[in-house]
Amino acid sequence: MIIVGGGPAGAALGTLLAQDGHKAIILEKDIHPRDHVGESLTPSTNLVFDRIGFLDKMNDNGFIHKPGTGWNAPRSPLWKFVEIWLFEFPLPGTPQPYTYNVERDEMDAMLLRHAHENGVKVLQGVKVTNVLFEGDRAVGVRAQVADGWERDLRARYVVDATGRRCQLASQLRMKKKDPNFNQFCIYSWFRGVKEPPERYRGFTLFYFIGLNQAWSWHIPLKDGKFSMGVVVDKEDFQKSGKSEEEFFFSLVGRNRTFTHAMQDAERIRPWWIEGDYSYKIDRFAGPGWLLVGDALRFVDPIFSSGVDVALFSSLYAYETLTEAMRTGNEERPFAEYQRRVEAGVDLWYELIETFYKLQNLVTRYASSPRWREMIVRTLQGNPYIPDTQNRARTLLDAMHDSYQKALADPGNLLRPWAMDPERADLPRCPQCLGVVDYIAAEGLYLCRKCGARRETAPEEEFLQAVPLDT
User: Fold this and answer.
1) Does residue 124 share a domain with residue 149?
2) Beta-ladder partners of 425
């Protein structure tokens, strides 16, 4: 078995295979440790960490224990949050009532070392230039070391765990940019960030900053460090004309508690910039190959879904591969892998999309006794099992209904950009909330962001498009 990529997805899959007596090799182009975004984990990751015998190592390392998450509005009183205790409703099977905030360079290196200690052959500094095919079947890879030496390696199965590089999907031209998300992310590590009250120790905190498609994070790490970052629509950064640092601190000033927390903060690492990172891939499996982790889908880190997808797709890939090897027939288990993982990542996508459509709606539902358990259990992760899917679907259906009611009421303060006068009156696409223009010469409405074209204005109650000069 060849696994291309040694991040959490590749390392977990390699460990599971080796623990079951299968031979596996991980080819990783970088030398770990290496930096990576995604420092806050979901409770569900405990289940896979425990399965591969890694949970004790997480606790021994001293990663910050994360019992919950919270968020607030731009003008909320200092340190006043809508709070979610992630273990308020017990997660079945988890051995502990907390998850973690992690330094990803450390955690990812530990996972890769754990794979090696369990019998996986790990080669770092080895880049896979392409996956080899015979007909339509993957049969191996071409591996390249730093000095230019290349060699073809063959295996019964090839698993792409290359993260957002999407080695195999790019090679097969399956990677599609997501038209609904065009996010720009800037973050770094700081010291001197003010600590929240003791009640929120270990919490991952989010600050809303008065922009409809934007949010910021405050993640405590070991030794007094904090990861602080902002995510906005890329258009907002491009129009600002500011440097990365000026732009970051202009957004800090849009939230009262964010401003207070950063008063004495000192940046201790260079800025890390991410952009255009949302994409979709329709096929996760084919003859002789599978995709796992970010190599199959990535949208946005708002719900800390990245490592959840990495670990569970690897667990299901392990089950899929072992069944295929046991039976000699890969068609049925590969199809089941596609169905199961796609159902989970689609739910993550819908949750993220709903958040971006109407941020305040999440607060309304989290504060409702009727919906709180569904919110908590959905944010716990693992949306690949029927119970989680059924809860999430009920929640999403209700939120979509509330969304439509808010859009139909011109005076509703839950409407997108209701608190942003410069944008409130612009015509909006109901799919991605991009600005919509009426093209008189063609007699249709065109979204500037996702490119959707309509003959009639959708949602007439809120979409009163202004004709373009043509």
Assistant:
1) yes
2) none
Q: Tell me which residue range forms the domain holding 443.
A: 426-470
366 and 287 belong to one structural domain: no
Under a CB-based contact definition with an 8 Å cutoff, are residues 252 and 203 in contact?
A: no
Check whether residue 258 and residue 142 sit in a common domain.
no
Task: Look up tokens 């360079």; give the residue.
Answer: 105
| Cβ–Cβ under 8 Å, residues 376 and 85 | yes
State the virtual CA torsion across 67, 73, 79, 80 in degrees, nearest 10. -80
380 dihedral zone (left: phi>0; alpha: psi -120 to 50; beta): alpha
* 388 in a structural domain: yes
Sequence-distant (≥ 6) Cβ neighbours of residue 255 within 8 angstroms = 72, 73, 74, 207, 208, 209, 210, 216
Q: Which residues have CB under 8 Å from 38's CB, separation 6+?
A: 104, 301, 304, 306, 307
pTM of the full structure: 0.89
- For the record, the structure tokens of 400 come out as 């979509």
Residues 406, 409, 413, 419: what is their CA dihedral angle, to the nearest 10 degrees? 110
Contact 290, 157 (CB under 8 A): yes
Asked if residue 42 is part of any domain, the answer here is yes
Q: Give me the sign of the Cα torsion angle 399, 186, 237, 210.
A: positive
Same domain, 55 and 155: yes
Q: Is residue 314 part of a domain?
A: yes
Rounded CA separation 302/356 (Å): 10
Query: DSSP 3-state assignment of 169?
Result: helix
Mark whether 25 and 155 lie in a shared domain: yes
Q: In Å, how far from its chain's centre is CA 245?
A: 24
Pairing of strands 453-454, 444-447: antiparallel
User: Could you give phi then psi for residue 2, rounded to 5 degrees?
Assistant: -105, 125
Read off the pLDDT of residues 229-275 as tens digits, 9 standing for 90 and up: 999 988 888 888 889 899 999 999 999 999 999 999 999 999 999 87
What pLDDT shows up at residue 418? 59
Asked if residue 239 and residue 129 are part of one domain, the reply reads no
Q: Could you tell me the two tokens for 129?
A: 């230039």
How many whole angstroms separate alpha carbon 34 and alpha carbon 7? 10
